[in-house]
Design goal:
The protein is built from three helices and six strands; from the N terminus they run ααββββββα. A hairpin with a 2-residue loop joins β3 and β4. The chain starts with a helix and ends with a helix. It has two domains: about 45 residues; about 80 residues, OB fold (Dihydrolipoamide Acetyltransferase, E2P) (Beta Barrel). It is α+β, with helices and mostly antiparallel strands and about 140 residues long.
């Protein structure tokens, strides 16, 4: 019976010691991570998205290699299209094979290991706001 009680006492002492040591560390970490009042720059930097927008004229499409090339003023930009990328054209779902050289493209990409990888891709010109409003009015009627 005393062995059971002493084991429970040792276990309780370990739990109390662990909690005592870990709680002040957590509080100290929270204070170190919290910015000073009136200092919004660290907060803005931490909330900054790692998604980078891109747009331009489509110079080439390689559906086999899953890449697109955007023509630039000085050089061409090759962007890999992720397997899970959301591709749209004219407001609906599309495939990379639907892309036409010379049309406008835009989307969001991530830079990883020096490689740009598109996670979303919109083919064709950006729809006008007036067209959207006209479509909404027709849908309501």
């Amino acid at each position: 019976m005393f062995k059971c009680v002493s084991r429970l006492g040792v276990l309780a002492a370990i739990i109390v010691t662990t909690l005592t040591v870990s709680l002040p560390l957590s509080a100290a970490e929270k204070e170190a991570a919290a910015p000073a009042k009136g200092d919004a720059a660290p907060v803005a930097a931490s909330l900054k998205s790692n998604h980078i927008p891109f747009h331009g004229k489509l110079g080439a499409v390689d559906a086999k290699a899953m890449t697109i090339t955007i023509d630039g003023k000085e050089k061409k930009r090759v962007i890999h299209v992720a397997m899970h990328a959301k591709i749209t054209k004219a407001g609906g779902a599309a495939k990379l094979e639907d892309a036409v050289v010379g049309e406008e493209v835009r989307g969001q990409l991530l830079k990883t290991d020096g490689k740009e990888e598109a996670i979303s891709l919109r083919l064709g010109a950006k729809p006008e706001a007036k067209e959207k409003k006209a479509t909404r009015k027709k849908e309501k009627k």
